[in-house]
Amino acid sequence: MSTDFQSARVALGARLRELRTEAGLDGKGVAAVLGWQRSKVSRLETGKQTPSSADLTAWAEAVGRADLANELKGRLVGLETQYRSWRRQLAGGHRARQELAIAETSTTQTIRGVEVSRIPGLFQTADYARHAFEVNAEFRQVPRDIEDAVRTRIRRQECLYEPGKKFRFLVWEAALHMLTCPREVMAAQLDRLAGLIGLDTIELGIIPFGAQLRRAPGHGFWIYDRRLVIVETINAEMWLDDEENIALYERAYDWMAEAAVHGPQARRLIGRARASLDLS
Prior knowledge:
The radius of gyration is 20 Å and the shape is elongated. The N and C termini lie far apart (about 55 Å). The protein is of the alpha/beta class. Strands 1-7-6-5-2-3-4 form a 7-stranded mixed β-sheet. It folds into 2 domains: about 1-80, 434 Repressor (Amino-terminal Domain) (Orthogonal Bundle), CATH 1.10.260.40; about 80-275, 2-Layer Sandwich (Endonuclease, Chain A). The chain has helices at about 5-20, 25-35, 40-45, 55-60, 70-75, 85-90, 95-105, 125-140, 145-155, 175, 185-195, 245-255, 265-275, and strands at about 85, 110-115, 165-170, 200-205, 220-225, 230, 235-240. It is built from 13 helices and 7 strands.
């Protein structure tokens, strides 16, 4: 069973358990309401069994949250597909995708990423993330679970301080100037980014304007160890776990890394972007 499939199933099980707990039910109680064996409830909540669409509808009704049936079924649809449409992934809002990111990150030692137009989610402030989710919800016309999504994204960032993990990111300088939020929010975000330089788990490189490139940063992507690449497009995510694609994206990362600056030079570029905001 692929790791991405199992991680998604575990995340779905955790969501089922959360809804049961919020309803004040224990495992035996929800099993009685549903007319199921207690063992089935346990397998679903621990990610050891894949629920059916009917199971999820019944669960939502049993815990008094029939309104969340579409969210749960949206998670189910995305479990094992390589090409994961945003329409389906975000059917119940952004929180589900953020929880999946936590599950995937927890099983990864090294994440390499490239971002060309935004600050990586792992490095975002709550306000920057909030604006990103708000705009995305409007653009995709999906439910606005903004605060839940923000809290989950910030919770994911706890991994940045775990010994042994490594986060190697390349950010094109344009992302430091891209104003998709108020200037005050961007200023705080740039301060946060500069403050992360020097953390022993983080290697942040900035690709400057005017740098000589062997390959232009066409789009963002994240590489999880050497087992998975996630690429985001306007309408979908691609989850690529075959050796050929992983090698291709590793080469793209390495070629772009040749042009990146780090440490004090990276901090100067961030400072220059902040100064350009002219908040006086």
